[in-house]
Structures are given as structure tokens and as C-alpha cells.
């Protein structure tokens, strides 16, 4: 119905434009004999005024002259040009004018016939609920005709990145996230769940569909599967990435002063020590805190530091020892306790018993998301920023591990993964 009305409007516009252009063609064809004869003895304004006052008489004169056929050919060409102008095969680009330069893009509302190309999406009548339930993929929306638009995993569209925008209370979660958590039955799913409602509504459904469900709850660590970032260290420079995220979360990363860099260097060294010297079960943030608590960095009366002694026991060439000697050990004796205090302040949240238990081990590994059907619910508070560093590290390591797995399988995951990141910008 909307498309039919749109065509009617275009027809009206075409007629109006043609009627505006018709006097121009009448004037041109009436002038042709004078132009051909190179006759300049004509009062142009009077000539044009006469034609505009009596357009019908002018029209009849032309069609009775030798210029009839060229005149009608020109009229046909004008109509074709106007029709093409109102029905472009290539959409005009969407334009947003900025303060200095315009920004051009190619976004436009897709037509049903355009979207319904082979292997792009599935268009299923809303009444055919059985067909909808059997069509696995991302539910994008519904056309006025009642057809539900579903983009399957094997869609020929270049990507499946969907950006949903809407104000509070505009049913983003109910209309997009929830249906797609339920409808994707052959891919792993990672869904952020700020309120916990997605888990409550879909957990049992996903289990019935053959999924293993996992909850990482940054709002309540006692009701969460466990996650230990230190168990994802694959190579030595991974320790610096972890240290940087943790320190940046509690200190302004834009202001990388002496204390920021000193903390970063010491934490990086301690993570290396724990990674190379501890058993996997003891490679935790709590293990680092215990290490700092046990060995005093200050010099005693004999000028000996317990922390120095621990690193001196390591063999020459050990990465942790080299990092320690080039970093913390170079600090002046008066600054060493302050550096440690700064780092302990940064790690203060990990002292909590619930947090230390949460980061003590891994109840699942990110690689499993690409090898088996898992629905991972990530509960994050949109208001409490305490655990931003740990949340950032969680997703950073997830992406890294999935890319690592994909690299081993020709840039594809053995089991595809869908991420539904509700309220992710918060």
C-alpha cells in the first residue's frame, strides 16, 4: 500500500515537471525557423509572451508544421529523462552536512524486492510460525507485508554486523536481542545482560536446544562462573597487556607519569614471575598479592631486600628477573615502598574474598565458544564502573582467543559465533 501511494506521488510530480518544461520546448520549436534562417529581426520578449499566452495554439501550429516528428521525439525524450530521474536504479547517497565538510555514505531504506535476493536473507510470512522456527539466523525485522526478515549464517551479504539504536524503553532488548538469542540454534552466542532478564527468560530454552549455558556475573561474583585472566597468557608479551589494562582501569592512562609507569613495570614483572614460577592453579592475582605480602621490598639494616633476593634466585636470562632488574630495582630506595603501595591500591579490589575466588580459575575457556554450542551470558552493571578493567580484559582476551582459534581453521570458527552486545557502549 505504501509503495503504491509512493508511485502515485511520483506520477503527479512527473506530470507537474513535464508541464513546466512543455512551454520551454514550445518556445524552442517556434524559434527554430528564425534560428535556421539566421533571422534576428524578432522581438524575443513579445514572441515568448505570445506563446505563453496561447500555448494550445502554439502546440497546434507546431504539430501541423514540418517539425511535428522532431517535436514529439523531444517530448518522449523529456518524459523518459523525468521518469529515470524519479526512479533511479542507483540510490542517491545519504548525506549529512557537518560543521566543516559534508560526510557522504550509502545508507538507504531497503526495498523488499531488493533485500529478497538469493541467499541474502529469508523472507518468511509471519503466519508461517513453523517456517520461522526452522529458519536459523538473525531476525532483522518485519516488512509491512507481514514477512519476517531473517539473515542466515551463510548469507551472501558482506557481513552480519547489526547496529540497533533506540531510546530508553524503545524495546531494543525485547524486539531484537531476545528473539535472536532464541532463534540462533546452531551458533554459539555471547550476550551482554545488564539486568539479568535475558538469562532468566532464555536459559532453559537454550539448554533445551542443546546449548551449554555459562554465566559471567560482574555484578555478583558469588553467582558466576569463574574467570582467571592469567590463564590466557600464551606468550611473554601477554603479561604486559594484562598489566596495562589493570593499571589503566584505576589510573588515568592519559597521564602516564612516573607512578603509572612504575606500577605497570612492577605488575608486569610480577605476572611474569607468577607465570613462569608458579603452578597453573596458583597463577592468580591473589598469588601476586600473596607474593608482595610475603616479601618486603624495603631494604633492611643490612641493606638487603627480601623482594630482591627472590628475583636474584632466578637464573640469568629469566624474563622476570631481567624485567625486575631493568625496572623496579632501578628505583631509588625511598621510592620503592611508595611504588608498591600505589600498586596495592590499584589491586585493592582483588583483595576481596569474592573477587579472589572469581579470578582463581576458569570454569570454561573462550576457545570453547568456537568449538561447541555455548550460550554465554555476561552480566555487567551499566552504573557501577568498579570492574571496568576486568570487563575490558575479559572481552579483549575473548576476541584474542577467538581470532587465534580462527587462524587455525582458515579464518573461520568451527562453530560460528553470534554476539548480541546489549548496552555495550555503557
Task: Please tell me how large the radius of gyration is.
Answer: 35 Å
Report strand %. Answer: 5-15%
Say what oligomer this is.
Answer: single chain
Helix content: 40-55%
The main sheet orders its strands as 7-8-6-9
The SS-based structural class is alpha/beta
What does the model show?
This protein has a four-stranded parallel sheet with strand order 7-8-6-9, with helices on one face. Strand 4 and strand 5 form a beta hairpin. By secondary structure, the chain is an alpha/beta fold. Helix 1 crosses helix 3. It is built from 16 helices and nine strands. The two termini are 40 Å apart.
Question: In short, what is this structure?
Answer:
This protein is an alpha/beta fold and 426 residues long.
Task: Compile the SSE list and pairings.
Elements: H1 2-36, H2 44-53, H3 55-63, H4 68-86, E1 95-97, E2 102-104, H5 112-115, E3 122-125, H6 129-134, E4 138-142, E5 147-151, H7 172-183, E6 188-192, H8 197-208, E7 212-217, H9 238-250, H10 258-277, H11 285-294, H12 306-312, H13 319-326, H14 336-346, H15 353-358, E8 374-379, H16 388-407, E9 417-421
Parallel strand pairs: 6-8, 6-9, 7-8
Antiparallel strand pairs: 1-2, 3-5, 4-5
Helix pairs in contact: 1-3, 1-4, 7-8, 9-10, 9-16, 10-13, 10-14
Amino acid at each position: 500500500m505504501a509503495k503504491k501511494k509512493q508511485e502515485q506521488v511520483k506520477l503527479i510530480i512527473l506530470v507537474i515537471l513535464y508541464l513546466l518544461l512543455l512551454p520551454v520546448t514550445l518556445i524552442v520549436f517556434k524559434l527554430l525557423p528564425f534560428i535556421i534562417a539566421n533571422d534576428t529581426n524578432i522581438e524575443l520578449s513579445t514572441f515568448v509572451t505570445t506563446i505563453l499566452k496561447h500555448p494550445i495554439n502554439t502546440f497546434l501550429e507546431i504539430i501541423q508544421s514540418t517539425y511535428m516528428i522532431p517535436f514529439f521525439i523531444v517530448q518522449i525524450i523529456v518524459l523518459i529523462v523525468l521518469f529515470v530521474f524519479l526512479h533511479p536504479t542507483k540510490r542517491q547517497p545519504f548525506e549529512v552536512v557537518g560543521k566543516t565538510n559534508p560526510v557522504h555514505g550509502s545508507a538507504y531504506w531497503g526495498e523488499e524486492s531488493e533485500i529478497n535476493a538469493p541467499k541474502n536473507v529469508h523472507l518468511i510470512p509471519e503466519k508461517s510460525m513453523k517456517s520461522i522456527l526452522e529458519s536459523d539466523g538473525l531476525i532483522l525485522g518485519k516488512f509491512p507485508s507481514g514477512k519476517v526478515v531473517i539473515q542466515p549464517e551463510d548469507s551472501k551479504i558482506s557481513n552480519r554486523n547489526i547496529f540497533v539504536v533506540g531510546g530508553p524503553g524503545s524495546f531494543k532488548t525485547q524486539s531484537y536481542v531476545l528473539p535472536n538469542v532464541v532463534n540462533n540454534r546452531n551458533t554459539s552466542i555471547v550476550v551482554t545482560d545488564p539486568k539479568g532478564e535475558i538469562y532468566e527468560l532464555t536459559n532453559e530454552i537454550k539448554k533445551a536446544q542443546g546449548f551449554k549455558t555459562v554465566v559471567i556475573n560482574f555484578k555478583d561474583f558469588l553467582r558466576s562462573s569463574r574467570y582467571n585472566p592469567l590463564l590466557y597468557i600464551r606468550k611473554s608479551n601477554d603479561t604486559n597487556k594484562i598489566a596495562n589494562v589493570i593499571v589503566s582501569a584505576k589510573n588515568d592512562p592519559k597521564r602516564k607519569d612516573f607512578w603509572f609507569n612504575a606500577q605497570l613495570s612492577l605488575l608486569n614483572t610480577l605476572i611474569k614471575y607468577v607465570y613462569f614460577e608458579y603452578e597453573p592453579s596458583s597463577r592468580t592475582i591473589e598469588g601476586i598479592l600473596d607474593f608482595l605480602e610475603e616479601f618486603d621490598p624495603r631494604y633492611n639494616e643490612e641493606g638487603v631486600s627480601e623482594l630482591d633476593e627472590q628475583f636474584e634466585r632466578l637464573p640469568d636470562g629469566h624474563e622476570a628477573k631481567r624485567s625486575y632488574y631493568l625496572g623496579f630495582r632501578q628505583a631509588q630506595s625511598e621510592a620503592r615502598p611508595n611504588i608498591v603501595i600505589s600498586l596495592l591500591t590499584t589491586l585493592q579490589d582483588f583483595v576481596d574474598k569474592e573477587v579472589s575466588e572469581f579470578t582463581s580459575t576458569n570454569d570454561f575457556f573462550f576457545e570453547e565458544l568456537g568449538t561447541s554450542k555455548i550460550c554465554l551470558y555476561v552480566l555487567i552493571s551499566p552504573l557501577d564502573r568498579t570492574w571496568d578493567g576486568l570487563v575490558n580484559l575479559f572481552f579483549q582476551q575473548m576476541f584474542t582467543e577467538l581470532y587465534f582459534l580462527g587462524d587455525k581453521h582458515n579464518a573461520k570458527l568451527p562453530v560460528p559465533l553470534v554476539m548480541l552486545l546489549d548496552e555495550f557502549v555503557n
